[in-house]
């Protein structure tokens, strides 16, 4: 087994790209990553392509990665198409890492590209249900409703006509459960979102680049209590890529701005009960053990925050704070630039955006940029070890898939 390094990254600003396609966005970030790595497309020995909905919206199934790579003159190499819902891009990187670490190839590229915007907004929102067991959506939702039983907190009336994806309902239920059990408040969630919008304002690749105060977040359009629009990831398009290589390849080409992958762990969820070990806790322990580090060693992290509650919850799962203290931890300022452990310096999914098949690699782009010391006004001073946590889909009462990477500055 040999060490694996990220030598090139590429990203397209996330947003609503009417004139772009899944293919055109992927081509751009592949070119960006190759230029960043200082290598030619002929050097690539394997490709892993993440996308969830190209087939649903445009009918392109089965050979999505091959269509992209062959169109760029990248042929003959093995190409694997990856679907793991919101964790697809990080799963693609995990496969690239695995191939290089096993010595099967010396250089591989992971690409994620997704186009979610559509003239049919309802279709875009409904597409998210494909990230669940479609034969048992009602059963899954009924199981998740357990989070809403025996609540003592007072809930405001809901807008029955509000348009939202099914995952906002899931996050809303889990947030209310956390509020009821630990005393977390809507303001705690607003602090998380306000912080992420501030970080996004410093990121030229973010979909939203507007600063929002805590009060503005709380007073934004309600989605489902306690979540407001500013606490939720927007629908959008985008792409990102990362090139990984072996230590032997790196020695021949010089270390340059390489970043070492200390751990890459991919798991699926389990049929646990509400008090069982969360998938985030379980995979976090595996990642820390593989990397030989602990939560206290992480200088900065990108956590999967499809809503502000997602970040709050994962701060606890990753061991950055005790269970139930994610809200006070955020309010302390620890997760903001200048704090003890800045989190989602990219703006996270709430600010940077969340084109499903690309989000995991966007996290990697941000952390590589941080570890290289090239993040400009959002730079985390002295960042040496970073963590990316990326969850996807839902089965039972937790994510269907989750991937964690631990990266280290060389």
TrEMBL record:
GO terms, molecular function: acyltransferase activity, transferring groups other than amino-acyl groups
Gene3D superfamilies: 3.40.47.10
InterPro entries: Thiolase (IPR002155), Thiolase-like (IPR016039), Thiolase_C_2 (IPR055140), Thiolase_N (IPR020616)
E.C. designation(s): 2.3.1.176
Domain Thiolase N-terminal: start-end pairs: 6-210
Superkingdom of the organism of origin: Bacteria
Keyword Plastid: no
Principal EC category: transferase
Keyword annotations of the record: Acyltransferase, Transferase
TM region positions: none
Domain Thiolase C-terminal: start-end pairs: 282-395
Transferase is among the record's keywords: yes
Protein name: Propanoyl-CoA C-acyltransferase
Organism: Syntrophothermus lipocalidus (strain DSM 12680 / TGB-C1)
Lineage start: Bacteria, Bacillati, Bacillota, Clostridia, Eubacteriales
């Amino acid at each position: 087994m040999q060490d694996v390094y990220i030598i090139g990254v590429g990203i397209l600003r996330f947003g609503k790209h009417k004139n772009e396609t899944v293919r055109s966005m992927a081509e751009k970030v592949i070119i960006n990553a190759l230029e960043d790595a200082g290598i030619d497309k002929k050097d690539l020995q394997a490709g892993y392509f993440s996308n969830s909905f190209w087939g649903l919206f445009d009918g392109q199934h089965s050979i999505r990665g091959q269509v992209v790579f062959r169109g760029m003159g990248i042929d003959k190499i093995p190409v694997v198409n990856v679907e793991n819902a919101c964790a697809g891009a990080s799963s693609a990187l995990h496969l690239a890492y695995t191939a290089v670490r096993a010595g099967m190839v010396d250089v591989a590229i992971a690409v994620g590209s997704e186009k979610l915007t559509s003239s049919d907004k309802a279709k875009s929102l409904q597409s998210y249900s494909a990230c669940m067991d479609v034969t048992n959506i009602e059963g899954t939702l009924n199981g998740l409703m357990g989070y809403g039983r025996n609540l003592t907190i007072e809930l405001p009336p809901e807008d029955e006509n509000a348009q939202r994806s099914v995952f906002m309902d899931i996050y809303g239920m889990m947030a209310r459960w956390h509020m009821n059990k630990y005393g977390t408040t809507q303001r705690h969630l607003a602090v998380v979102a306000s912080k992420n919008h501030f970080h996004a304002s410093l990121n030229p690749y973010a979909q939203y680049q507007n600063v929002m105060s805590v009060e503005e977040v709380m007073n934004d359009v309600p989605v489902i209590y306690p979540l407001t629009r500013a606490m939720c990831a927007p629908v959008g398009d985008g792409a990102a890529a990362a090139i990984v290589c072996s230590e032997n390849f790196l020695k021949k080409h010089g270390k340059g701005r390489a970043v070492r992958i200390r751990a890459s762990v991919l798991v699926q969820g389990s049929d646990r009960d509400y008090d069982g070990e969360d998938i985030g806790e379980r995979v976090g322990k595996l990642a820390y053990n593989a990397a030989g580090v602990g939560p206290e060693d992480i200088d900065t992290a990108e956590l999967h925050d499809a809503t502000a509650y997602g970040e709050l919850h994962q701060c606890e799962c990753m061991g950055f704070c005790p269970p139930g203290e994610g809200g006070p931890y955020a309010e302390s300022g620890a997760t903001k630039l200048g704090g003890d452990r800045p989190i989602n310096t990219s703006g996270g999914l709430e600010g940077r955006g969340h084109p499903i098949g690309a989000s995991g690699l966007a996290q990697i782009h941000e952390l590589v940029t941080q570890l290289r010391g090239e993040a400009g006004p959002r730079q985390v001073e002295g960042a040496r070890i970073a963590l990316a946590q990326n969850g996807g889909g839902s089965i039972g009462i937790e994510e269907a898939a989750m991937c964690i990477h631990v990266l280290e500055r060389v």
